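Re: the request from the purification team.
They wanted to know what the chain is likely to look like in 3D before they choose a buffer screen. I agreed to run a prediction and write the result into the notebook, where they can find it.
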Amino acid sequence: MKILCIGRNYAEHIAELNNETPDEPVIFTKPETALLQRGMPFFYPDFSTDIHHEIELVLRVSKNGKNIDPKFAHTYFDAIGLGIDFTARDLQSKAKSKGLPWDLAKGFDGSAPLSPTFKPVAEFADLANINFHLEVNGEVKQRGNSGMMLHNFAAQIAYISRFITLKMGDLIFTGTPSGVGPVQIGDQLTGYLENEKVLELSVK
């Protein structure tokens, strides 16, 4: 199982971090050990003092594929859930300032909490109009809609599969909307897919 992630896929998030808008999808990966499931808490690591939450729609890949045509891309995932791309912003900023990779800032253990609930694709009336949001201690911090993506689901799958073969069970984190910010020990994070609470997480 691979965790594939799309960076810089929402214009307002690009702006809030003062990044350049890419011409093509930005792809990075997280190792399997980043996955955090079944309501397990997120333990704040000792190597960072600036962990940020990034809520994302997550696609579950349902069959193997390589060089997938965008018009058939919708047949390669069968369910959608929520995930949090925890980012050690201090480590990322340090690496970026030196032009170095920022794998450790994104791929550390527990950095990819995943909702235990994934909704079948057939339950969504319009894949280009899926609402989701994240609350921190009961306050909405991030709110997004799949229609705001610079690269939609089909474009992401087609692009990734040019370089990396997709396999059944892979997860695609599709990018985060604006509103990212730090978490602290004691915070309670709650993710909503449409208006359904599908992800709960405590920071310890």
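For the purification team: The mean pLDDT is 95.
Please add any questions underneath this entry.
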